[in-house]
Specification:
The protein has 442 residues and is mainly α. It has helices spanning 2-21, 23-49, 54-64, 70-77, 83-98, 103-118, 138-159, 171-199, 205-221, 224-239, 244-269, 279-285, 294-304, 308-322, 327-332, 342-361, 380-386, 389-425, 434-438, and strands spanning 120-122, 125-127. It folds into 2 domains: 21-216, no CATH class; 228-438, no CATH class. The protein has a two-stranded antiparallel ribbon with strand order 1-2. Helix 6 (103-118) packs parallel to helix 8 (171-199).
Length: 442
C-alpha cells in the first residue's frame, strides 16, 4: 500500500494539481459556481409548478387562477433557460480576472460573439433561437468564452493603448478606446467563422455541435459505468489531499446540468423523466456530509468508536457535516493519505451510487428534477430534488449503509492504534492499558 501511495504522490498528484490549478479549468469551474444560485432558482421554479400532489395543484389554481404557473415560468426562462448566455459571461469574467485584466470588455465581447454565432437568417431578417440558449449550448458557450477572452486579453496587452497622448481623455473614455481594436478583431473573427459555417450549410452552430459532441457525451454520462468512474476519480483525488470535486467540477457541470434540464422539462410537459444521473443525484444521494459520504463515517464513529479523540472530533464536526462540509473530518481524522481509510472512503460513494441508481431504475425513488444548494442537509435535500418523501427515505438508507461500510475499518483502525499504543508503552509495565488508550487524545 505504501508503494502505491508513493507512486501516486510522485506521478498522479503533480498531474492532478496542475489540472486543478490550470487557468482555464479554474475559470470554467468558478464560472459554473458563480451562476449556481440562478440555476437553483430556475430548477425550483419548475418544481413549484409541477409538484406532484393534486391537492397542492388544485389549491394553487383556486388561489391564483389557472395562470398561476406563469410566475415560475418567467423565473425559469430568465435563469436556467438562458444558462448558455450566463455561463459565457461568467467564464469570461473569471478568465479575464485571472490575467488581472478588466473583466467587463471581455464579458461583453464574449456575449456578443456567442450571439453572432446564434443568429439565424430567416425571411430577410435574423432571429436568435431561444431554445438553444439553455444547457444544450453549454459546450459552445464554454469555447466561445475562452477563445474570445484569450484573444481580447492578449490583444489589449500587445497594443497597450497610450493614455498620455496629446489629447487628454477621461479614464473611462480612454479605457473604451483601448478596447475598440481588440473588440473589432474578436467580433470580426467570429463573424467570419459564422460565414464559414453558413457556406457549409450549417445555420445553427450550436445544434450542429450538440449533435456531434454534446449529445453523445450526454448519453455516455447517463450510464452507471461513467458515474462510478467520476465518483472514483473524485475520491481518489481527495484521498491524495487534492480537492477532487473542484478538479472535476467543469466536467460534471457540463455533463450533468443538461441532464437535469431534460428532466425538468420532461416534468413540466408531463412526460417520462429520462435521466437518472444529474448533478443533484450525486450531491443528494452520494455526497451526503461531503465527499466520501462522511456523514456515515461520523455516525459510525459516534456510535461504535471508543476513542475519546474520535468522539470529540465527531462532536466538533457533526454540525458542519450536516451541511455537507467535511474538510474538518477529512483532515482531522485524518482520511488524507491514510491507507486504512482509502478503501471505505472510495468504496462507500461507489456502493451508494449503485444503490441509488438501482432504487431509481426500479421506480422506488423518482428521478431528480431540481437543484438545491449543496449545503442543504440530508433528508431535506432528498425530498426537494425528487419531489418525494422517498428521496429522503433513500438518503436514510444510504447513510445507514455507509455507516456499516465504514464500521469494520473503524474497528480495525482502533485495534491497530491500540497495538501500537501498547507497543510504545510496553506490555510489561503492569496493568491493563485499554482504558488509557481510549482516553488518549493524541
Amino acid at each position: 500500500m505504501q508503494k502505491l501511495i508513493n507512486f501516486m504522490e510522485k506521478y498522479f498528484v503533480p498531474l492532478a494539481s496542475r489540472i486543478g490549478s490550470q487557468r482555464h479549468m479554474v475559470a470554467i469551474r468558478d464560472g459554473f459556481i458563480s451562476i449556481i444560485p440562478l440555476v437553483i432558482i430556475g430548477s425550483l421554479a419548475i418544481l413549484v409548478n409541477n409538484f406532484p400532489i393534486k391537492a397542492y395543484q388544485d389549491y394553487m389554481s383556486s388561489l391564483f387562477g389557472h395562470s398561476w404557473t406563469s410566475f415560475a415560468v418567467y423565473l425559469y426562462n430568465g435563469t436556467f433557460a438562458i444558462i448558455s448566455l450566463l455561463i459565457v459571461f461568467s467564464i469570461s469574467h473569471n478568465l479575464a480576472r485571472s490575467y488581472q485584466a478588466e473583466p467587463l470588455p471581455a464579458e461583453l465581447v464574449s456575449l456578443i460573439a456567442l450571439i453572432i454565432l446564434l443568429l439565424q437568417p430567416t425571411n430577410g431578417s435574423f432571429v436568435i433561437p431561444f431554445d438553444w440558449l439553455d444547457a444544450s449550448g453549454l459546450f459552445v458557450a464554454i469555447f466561445v468564452a475562452i477563445i474570445s477572452t484569450e484573444i481580447m486579453v492578449r490583444l489589449r496587452q500587445f497594443l497597450k493603448f497610450d493614455r498620455k497622448g496629446p489629447i487628454r481623455m477621461a479614464p473611462i473614455l480612454s479605457r473604451s478606446f483601448a478596447t475598440l481594436l481588440p473588440m473589432l478583431v474578436v467580433l470580426s473573427l467570429f463573424s467570419m467563422l459564422k460565414l464559414v459555417f453558413l457556406s457549409l450549410g450549417i445555420t445553427n452552430i450550436l445544434e450542429a455541435f450538440y449533435n456531434l459532441i454534446q449529445s453523445p457525451l450526454a448519453g455516455m454520462a447517463n450510464t452507471l459505468g461513467t458515474a462510478i468512474t467520476i465518483v472514483f476519480l473524485a475520491h481518489l483525488c481527495w484521498f491524495l489531499g487534492i480537492h477532487g470535486t473542484n478538479i472535476l467540477e467543469p466536467v460534471i457541470q457540463a455533463m450533468y446540468l443538461p441532464a437535469l434540464q431534460e428532466n425538468m422539462l420532461a416534468l413540466a410537459r408531463g412526460e417520462v423523466i429520462p435521466n437518472v444521473f444529474t448533478k443533484p443525484f450525486f450531491d443528494s444521494f452520494v455526497y451526503m456530509g461531503g465527499c466520501g459520504t462522511t456523514i456515515s463515517l461520523l455516525l459510525a464513529l459516534f456510535i461504535f468508536s471508543k476513542r475519546t479523540r474520535w468522539r470529540e472530533l465527531v462532536k466538533l464536526t457533526f454540525a458542519q457535516g450536516m451541511f455537507n462540509i467535511n474538510e474538518p473530518v477529512v483532515y482531522g481524522l485524518p482520511i488524507v493519505i491514510n491507507p486504512l481509510f482509502i478503501i471505505p472512503f472510495i468504496m462507500t460513494p461507489i456502493v451508494l451510487t449503485i444503490t441509488s441508481y438501482s432504487a431509481t431504475i426500479i421506480g422506488l425513488v423518482p428521478r431528480t428534477v431540481a437543484m438545491v444548494p449543496w449545503t442543504t442537509p440530508p433528508i431535506i435535500s432528498g425530498f426537494l430534488v425528487s419531489g418525494s418523501i422517498m428521496g429522503s427515505a433513500l438518503q436514510l438508507v444510504n447513510i445507514v449503509i455507509g455507516a456499516l461500510l465504514y464500521l469494520p475499518f473503524i474497528i480495525m483502525a482502533e485495534r491497530m492504534e491500540m497495538a501500537k499504543f501498547r507497543s510504545d508503552k510496553g506490555e510489561n509495565s503492569g496493568g491493563d492499558r485499554t482504558n488509557d488508550f481510549h482516553n488518549n487524545n493524541i
